[in-house]
Amino acid sequence: MLSVWRRVLVWSVLLGCGLVLVACSSQRVNRAPVEDRGNHAKPAPAVMEPAAAPPVKQLPGFENAGKPGYYTVKPGDTLTRISLDNGQPWKDVARWNNIDKPNQIEVGQVLRVVPPVAVAAAAPVSPTGVVTRPVTSSGAAPAVTAAAPKPQPELAGADEVVDWSWPVTGPVLAGFDEVKNKGLDLGGAAGDAVLAAADGKVVYVGEGLRGYGKLIILKHNNTFLTAYAHNQALLVKEDQSVRKGQKIAEMGSSDTDRVKLHFEVRRQGKPVDPAKFLPTR
Predict the structure, then answer these.
(1) Which residue segments constitute the domains of the chain, with CATH numbers given?
(2) Whole-model pTM above 0.85?
């Protein structure tokens, strides 16, 4: 009889535990999902700032590009070539542009190729040539007036007058052509004397101009330069003064296919026909 009650008691305990477990399990299954209703702001996505553009390099003289008296360096240019084409000694062009290393000019750089001119303040000049003065607050004009200086016609063409002579005695091998030959090609033998065509000053001696070989450039005045190319020996130095007929080089074939002198006359930097200036033979 006692064992029967024990069995009933065990089954009651087991049944009670089972009900408790079922209740716990049902509560877990039916629990509503938890929602986070807090007002949490989402972090803003990172904004990538655009990379700053590298600063544009402004080459020397850029503010003068396109102005008269200035030249913009192009690929293949040299200071010697630019100076010759503008009728100026290369040392002057270097000085006007504060160039310490002539071989390091840059494409796009703007160079002054005419002498700097000091601009002086002046009173306005009337068409009659009389300097006018503004009327003062008292209504009376200043007593001093002066006639403006007139140009002297006899001096205007002074630089055009040059006493020319032939630089060599040999024949003309090739005449002047604005496109193909910017001077005269003159024949002779290696070692023949090359003479200064007029009084002047040596402004270039060297081989820095492609196609000219051993070259000498003389400046005769503010208008004319002469060039003597393809020499085998150079007998003068830069800044040296020379006289017409003075031996300055020996004829050769440097940077060309035969012995000859290539002779140019440059007027304001522009090649002109030397035959129009040299005396008739």
Answers:
(1) 62-112 (3.10.350.10), 164-276 (2.70.70.10)
(2) no
